[in-house]
């Protein structure tokens, strides 16, 4: 210890006030004994100097091959250049023309929380100025190595924390099927671009439904893979337990092709310790096999509790049940199943997410192995009144809820982890007898955009949207949304919007989820189901 103290710099700023101020934050406020103060000043000073030496070191980035994959024509999209309201963040082109891979000829956009070296990241917010990553996310590198062309980053919701599509500080994203209606969130811009046919594939992130909700509202296929199947390296995190990255596309085959390209442990992200080796999955090839189309013996469970959620509109229930029962025409067995614990799912997720989410916002996450984003944290912290006021109400509420819960229910986070295991086991017991479960993705079709007024009024249009999605971020089961039809807008019988059917599989059984979606999609043309209004589809 004496050696340690001799290394304390003469300019070390630590004083007894620092010791007392730090300890005052413990519980109701503690303080060292007066006779121990001098020792704690020395101990804290040693820690300060250690931190200063680490802080002075250059960061250790993931290598990015800028020569092989040059960033061409990086451009911040201006309001006059936008499509679908404000769907783009930046446009550019990154590709290697010499690669012939599974994504060759495919255009790909990224949710603007996914790092691209040299491309400023906006995160849908004005809390911070756009910050510029210095390395590519793993999913970016793998997309490029599979031959895809990445054509831009898409606007996302404010700090990736809303299922609306009007929360971004940089503009509202319009539903590709009807202006004035939500594209969903928080992967809003990417889903709208795919739904409009402007890009082939998007890669998004999902912590409570942020891939599946916008995909459902925009008429896309959207997959939240099994937790850890796709590395989250180089993606801004809300909560490491809930973090999932995955593909969206206009069809299931492109979704599978992208999943093959981006899945597998990358040697960095500890979420992926159980994942297969990169380039070892065969999701797309399995779909193309002739035997995949034969669903005889395939067992499909209609999850009773999911259709009985209070926010699920009766007509949504009817539409999804009708689509699910069409599996019988394809040879599958379809039966109702019950998982009573499904009704606890949203509450369990809410408590876990609020606490972990607030810790992430405050820069207090620990205990993970992976690629940190120190520049993003440095830009966000410390919090100020001005920054808080610029947050969308969902972010403000997450911070408030988390801080309150940690003080008033100090052991509840530990309990939620145990209850997540209970919830997982409940689904797994049913999935032993069934290949997949069917649920409505959202309880209603795209609502009209809300307006930024009071917190409750601002959030109200999207209340309940994640009632059947969030629990699977907690449990980690693969979950896919598939467009299966149309329903009229709640406020206009002449406007029709997509209906999403959610398909849930057992852990690491993403292939079964994709197979069920692919066979349904190949057999039934959901777009042709759109009713004719005034002589037009």
Automatic annotation (TrEMBL):
This is Amidase signature enzyme. InterPro entries: Amidase, Amidase_dom, AS_sf. It comes from the Eukaryota. Coiled coil: none annotated. Residues 97-514 form the Amidase domain. GO terms for molecular function: catalytic activity.
């Amino acid at each position: 210890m004496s050696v340690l103290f001799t290394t304390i710099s003469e300019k070390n700023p630590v004083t007894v006030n620092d010791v007392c101020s730090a300890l005052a934050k413990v519980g109701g406020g503690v303080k060292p004994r007066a006779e121990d103060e001098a020792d704690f000043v020395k101990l804290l000073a040693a820690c300060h100097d250690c931190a200063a030496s680490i802080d002075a070191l250059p960061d250790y980035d993931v290598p990015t091959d800028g020569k092989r994959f040059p960033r061409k024509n990086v451009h911040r999209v201006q309001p006059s250049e936008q499509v679908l309201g404000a769907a783009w963040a930046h446009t550019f082109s990154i590709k290697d023309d010499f690669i012939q891979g599974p994504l060759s000829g495919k255009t790909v956009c990224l949710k603007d929380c996914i790092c691209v070296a040299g491309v400023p990241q906006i995160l849908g917010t004005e809390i911070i100025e756009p910050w510029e990553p210095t390395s590519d996310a793993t999913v970016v590198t793998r997309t490029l190595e599979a031959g895809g062309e990445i054509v831009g980053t898409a606007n996302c919701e404010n700090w990736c924390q809303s299922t609306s599509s009007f929360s971004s500080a940089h503009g509202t994203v319009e539903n590709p099927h009807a202006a004035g209606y939500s594209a969903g969130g928080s992967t809003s811009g990417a889903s709208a671009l795919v739904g409009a046919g402007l890009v082939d594939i998007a890669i998004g992130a999902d912590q409570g439904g942020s891939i599946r909700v916008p995909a459902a509202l925009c008429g896309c296929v959207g997959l939240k893979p099994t937790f850890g199947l796709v590395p989250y390296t180089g993606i801004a995190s809300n909560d490491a337990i809930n973090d999932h990255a995955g593909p969206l596309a206009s069809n299931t085959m492109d979704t599978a092709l992208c999943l093959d390209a981006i899945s597998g442990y990358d040697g960095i992200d500890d979420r992926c310790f159980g994942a297969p080796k990169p380039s070892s999955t065969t999701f797309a090839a399995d779909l193309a096999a002739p035997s995949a189309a034969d669903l005889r013996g395939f067992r499909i469970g209609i999850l009773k509790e999911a259709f009985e959620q209070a926010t699920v509109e009766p007509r949504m229930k009817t539409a999804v049940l009708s689509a699910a029962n069409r599996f019988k025409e394809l040879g599958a067995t379809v039966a109702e199943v019950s998982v009573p614990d499904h009704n606890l799912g949203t509450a369990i997720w809410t408590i876990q997410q609020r606490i972990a989410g607030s810790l992430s916002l405050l820069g207090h996450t620990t205990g993970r192995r992976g690629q940190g984003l120190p520049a993003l944290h440095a830009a966000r912290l410390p919090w100020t009144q001005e920054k808080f006021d610029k947050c969308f109400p969902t972010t403000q509420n997450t911070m408030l809820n988390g801080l309150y819960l940690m003080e008033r229910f100090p052991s509840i986070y530990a309990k939620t982890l145990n209850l997540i295991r209970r919830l997982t086991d409940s689904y797994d017991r049913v999935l032993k007898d069934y290949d997949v479960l069917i649920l409505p993705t959202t309880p209603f079709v795209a609502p009209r955009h809300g307006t930024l007024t009071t917190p409750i009024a601002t959030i109200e249009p999207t209340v309940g949207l994640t009632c059947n999605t969030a629990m699977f971020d907690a449990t980690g089961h693969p979950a896919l949304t598939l467009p299966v039809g149309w329903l009229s807008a709640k406020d206009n019988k002449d406007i029709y919007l997509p209906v999403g059917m959610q398909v849930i599989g057992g852990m690491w059984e993403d292939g079964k989820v994709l197979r069920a979606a692919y066979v349904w999609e190949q057999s039934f043309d959901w777009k042709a189901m759109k009713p004719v209004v005034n002589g037009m589809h």
